[in-house]
Amino acid sequence: MFKKILKSYDYSLIIVVALLCIFGLIMVYSSSMVMAVQYYGQEADFFYNKQMRSLIIACLAFIVTALFPYKALQSNRILVPMVFLSLLGLTLVSLIGNVTNNAQSWIKFGTSSIQPSEFVKLSIIIYLSAVYAKKQSYINEFNKGVVPPLFYLILCCVLVATEPDYGTAAIIFAIAGTIIFSSGMNFKNIFKLAFIGVIAAAPFVLLLRDKIFSDVRLGRVDSFLDPFSSEHGYQLSNAFIALGNGGLQGLGLGQSIQKMGYLPEGHTDFIMAIIAEELGFLGVSFVLLSLGFIVLKGIFIALKCKDPFGSLLAIGIASMIGIQSFVNLGGISGVIPLTGVPLPFISFGGSSLLQLSIAMGILVNVSMFVNYERKYKQKEAKQEVQPEPQSYADRFSMNRK
After folding, report:
1. Which residues, including other chains, have CB under 8 Å from residue 111's CB and lie 6 or more apart?
2. Confidence check: pLDDT of 275 > 90
3. Measured between alpha carbons, how far is 107 from 96 in angstroms, rounded to an integer?
4. How far apart are CA 366 and CA 143, in angstroms?
């Protein structure tokens, strides 16, 4: 039994995640060593050591969640404490949070800190997946099957937005939207939700327009429209220079010019610019292909999974990585305004790395169950004449009719 389970794990997914984390650790050291010395008065490996400790903890979390049966996450014994802790974390941030880059998003513990909003992304995925999986028999009943789970989503988005961290709030909302769209409810309810959402959000936007459209955020729009002439475009302009310097093979690992004080915080949101400058098109391609592989693998797992909860979990995790990658890369390349979102598995940040590792452990566990049932359960069931459970793709098509 145990041997069959080990054979059912998707080792290609595990290897890609491991390679991305190791690559990210190397690039955190390369991109942060100058800033650690010049701006923080620390040793060159200061950020590297912090990321290394975070990676060790993240690896342990990945192993635990990869072995832990994902179906147990659907239990109220896990869902209720998870919802409570996520709301408690967001509330504590608003009360005693530490302000960094104009956002009160971190809770400090000595020399370490934690960002609760990162873990809210995963809690939203688990909660909505569990609730909508249980409501499959009446998913198209608007008042009973569609609306109730959304109160938790709205409360989380409001609390994150008040930090203020509108970028993370928008990502949480987009991830939830992907799960809702994939839950099997018909298009009529989806359009009704979208319409109600726009009507409900309009008064809040008008009331908080001074905070939402502050000088800092409008400056990000100005830098997006014209980074080289805007007073707020310094960081984006230097990111463009770094992207252009790399060419095909890059200047060489550790040889970035922009990290010498020209590109602030190059080890966080702008780490892809340093990767492009040092490792060129080849380094960028490795990151993009690896992230793309994880997203496509997550969608493939969701389509093959015959359990609604597992399907929605896989879709939610894949969408989280895909959306966050797009927002980060779109920001540093000038496709969309900057939002301060880290690049998954690569950027410096313990909270992000830990949350992503837990999410990937869950995805690997879902994949294991899919492979196990396909390889072994079907062989055992051949002797019995039973209708085969529907895959996610079949259920999705039927619910849309």
Report:
1. none
2. yes
3. 7
4. 30
Please check whether residue 236 is in contact with residue 225, taking contact to mean a CB–CB distance below 8 angstroms: no
Residue, of 107 and 175, whose pLDDT is higher: 175
Per DSSP, helices labelled H in 162-252 are 166-182, 187-207, 209-212, 215-225, 234-246
The answer, yes or no, to whether residue 401 has pLDDT greater than 60, is no
Q: Are 329 and 285 in contact (CB under 8 A)?
A: no
The mean pLDDT value for 247-263 works out to 87
* Tokens coding 293: 């592989």
Report pLDDT for 400: 58
Q: Which tokens is 128 given?
A: 């909505």
**DSSP class per residue in 244-279:** HHHTTT-S-TT--STTTTTSTTTTTTTHHHHHHHHH
Q: What pLDDT shows up at residue 96?
A: 80
Statement: the pTM of the whole predicted model exceeds 0.70: yes
Pairwise CA distance, residues 264 & 279, whole Å? 19
Burial class from Cβ neighbours inside 10 Å (0-12, 13-18, 19+) for residue 326 reads middle
Concatenated DSSP letters for 5-64? HHHHS-HHHHHHHHHHHHHHHHHHHHHHHHHHHHTT---TTHHHHHHHHHHHHHHHHHHH
Distance CA 397, CA 207 (A): 41
User: pLDDT tens across 191-232, in order?
Assistant: 888 888 788 777 766 766 666 666 666 677 777 777 777 667
Q: How far apart are CA 119 and CA 163, in angstroms?
A: 15
Give Cβ neighbours of residue 212 (< 8 Å, ≥ 6 apart): 164, 166, 205
